[in-house]
Amino acid sequence: MMTKKHVAVILSIISVLAIAFFVRGWYVFYQCGAVEQCLADSSYFQHIAKFSVTTLITIMALFCGSKYCICKRDRRLLQVGMLCAFCADICFKILHNVTHLFEHSADYTLMGINFFMVFQSIFIYRHTRTSDTDDHVPWIIVIPFAVMFVFNALHLFGVFEAALIPTVATYAAFLICSLIVACNVPKIGYFSPKNSTIIKYGMILFFLGDVCVGLSLATGPDHSIQEIVATVANNFVWYFYVPALLCLVLSGYKRD
């Protein structure tokens, strides 16, 4: 069971790791500029450090004891959600970067996005609860599935060729719906005011992190303005992602 002392130790380790990969990321950018291959060759430390942070945050979620959690059901939702984030980061930070698996890197990216879709759907469900026994399915969850149907139909009819577009569009719909739901949590009243505020800001940070992910994918030729913007945006992703995950996990801890 996780105690306040354990949480404090884990937060300290996360802080050290976060400072390390933030400094390393900007140092590499200073050395390489916006040269994609140079950045890729120098990024192994960041991948391992970032994955370690996700692992520690997942441990915080998994070992939140019944004494400190809001309720057993909320703890289970939080744990399953964080396991999805953990699996997504295995795809993005480990499998995606294994040399002999490079030919499958696009598949691992797709798999990671799918894990984050499940992550967002779980938190949409969690953040629309009105009581410990509330089992209703929120109507807003229909929107991402409608987007998925429309974009897959467009892909099927040849409007666009890239198979990744329907997946990205569907995830974007999940993300926006999750942000809307999280911002509405304080009005529902199930979570305490402090927990509601943590949830709200956690999902805002998560949204900003994914905006940076979107910008980081807009790469251009080495040293171009587009490539520089993409590289800088990529360096900022985990400024938002780490505190976002921490906020969501800590929102599962009971506040007096």
In short:
With 256 residues, the protein is mostly helical. The chain has helices spanning 4-32, 36-41, 44-62, 72-94, 105-126, 142-156, 164-188, 193-216, 225-250.
Overview of the molecule:
α3 (44-62) runs parallel beside α9 (225-250) and α6 (142-156) runs antiparallel to α7 (164-188). The protein is globular and about 55 Å long. The chain has 256 residues and is an all-alpha fold. The model has no long low-confidence stretch (mean pLDDT 87). The chain has helices spanning 4-32, 36-41, 44-62, 72-94, 105-126, 142-156, 164-188, 193-216, 225-250. The two termini are 19 Å apart. Helix content is 74%, strand content 0%. The longest helix has 29 residues, at 4-32.
| Average pLDDT | 87
Anisotropy-based shape: globular
Distance between the termini: 19 Å
Total helices: the number is 9
Count of DSSP strands: 0
Measured by DSSP, the beta-strand proportion falls in under 5%
